[in-house]
Amino acid sequence: MKKKSKKKVLLGAVLVLAMGLTACGGSENSGNAEVTEENSGAAESAQTEETDKVVRIGAVTQGNMLNATGGIAQEKGFLEEELEKAGYKLEVKGFAQAGPAINEAFGAGELDMAIYGDLPATVCKSNGIDTTIFAVNDSKMQMCILAANGSDIKSAKDFKGHKVIVGRGTIYHQCFKSLIADAGIAEEDVEQINTVSDANSVIASGEADALVTASSIGYYLEAQGIGTVVETTADHPEWTSQFFAVGKTDYLKENPEAAKAVIRALKRAYEFSKDNLDEVAEISASLTDGYTADVFEKVYDFDPSFEHFNPEITEESKTKLKALEQFLEDEELISNPVDIDQFVDTSYYEAVINEE
């Protein structure tokens, strides 16, 4: 696997709900050539044409690297290759402040597409930014319970009367609600510690009995000797989160070949992953600071077929999106409902399949 000079960032940054905005700048043209109305117009036209051919894709890290299937497609060169075939150049823009920052960038017209989580993508749509989900990046992002060292928690059934770290308004919160509902525990019977950015240090300090988090973070902390993963969502795919390829609706309509190129790249990454678990784990680890391949081997162990990397948007994915939308409404995290059937567009994927 080739070495990368790009800055690596924790995969956990995907879930940080801090707001941020990347500013755009410009530069003035200078030179000795005489500027006439004719050559000025020609230069402007050429610049516009070149700009239109660049696909600006948002990522949930500041290292300009995508995650999951998109990260495999980018690392293996599939994404750049497929876009070049369609006449586009790839530009990945990473955002350390993750989903909220990507939403800001969409609103400011700084992105054409993004690969990021279902929760911020749904919030973005609710806020009136016209975006469309056109492919899956990971349909089953695994969640887990990490019990602190010395804790008597063995599963969510033991949460009652304990201190549990739950980032409110995040996918962790949604998973937590599913866990306790299944265990027959009322939310008020659990002492919730509302933090995301400090979660690792809080669980390590012994100030909490358990942490609800992404399985990648859970297994990483376990490898560091900070607690034990006692339960995962492997047997409950309906409690997992999702990552999608999302685009500005107008951009997708005007550039369907770009959308199809992204899907082809994701499809190649999915096919590659089926027979290359070891390399996929190594690539995933290389995209995260301090993580090792064995962490991702455990994460991906629930489905060695990597069906969750399939870019096709299934009815199962839409059902989970509808449950997420309802959660956001119930928690008053969105003010405008989102029609999931309108939010999702499978026509780009279907066009790729029909061309094969």
Quick structural gist:
The chain is built from 15 helices and ten strands.
> Numbering strands along the chain, what is their spatial order in the largest sheet?
2-1-3-10-4
Extract low-pLDDT stretches. 1-51
Helix content: 40-55%
Return the string of H and E elements: HEHHEHEHEEEHEHEHEEHHHHHHH
Class from secondary-structure proportions = alpha/beta
* Rounded average pLDDT: 87
Distance between the first and last residues' Cα: 29 Å
Share of residues in strands = 15-25%
Overall form:
globular
Number of strands: 10
Helical element count?
A: 15
Describe the largest sheet.
Answer: 5 strands, mixed
The radius of gyration over CA amounts to 21 Å
Describe the secondary structure blueprint for this structure.
Elements: H1 37-52, E1 54-59, H2 68-75, H3 78-85, E2 89-94, H4 98-107, E3 113-117, H5 118-126, E4 131-141, E5 143-147, E6 163-165, H6 171-183, E7 191-193, H7 199-205, E8 210-214, H8 215-223, E9 228-232, E10 241-248, H9 249-254, H10 256-274, H11 277-286, H12 293-300, H13 315-330, H14 340-343, H15 347-355
Parallel strand pairs: 1-2, 1-3, 6-7, 6-8
Antiparallel strand pairs: 3-10, 4-10, 5-8, 5-9
Helix pairs in contact: 2-10, 3-10, 4-5, 5-13, 8-12, 10-15, 11-12
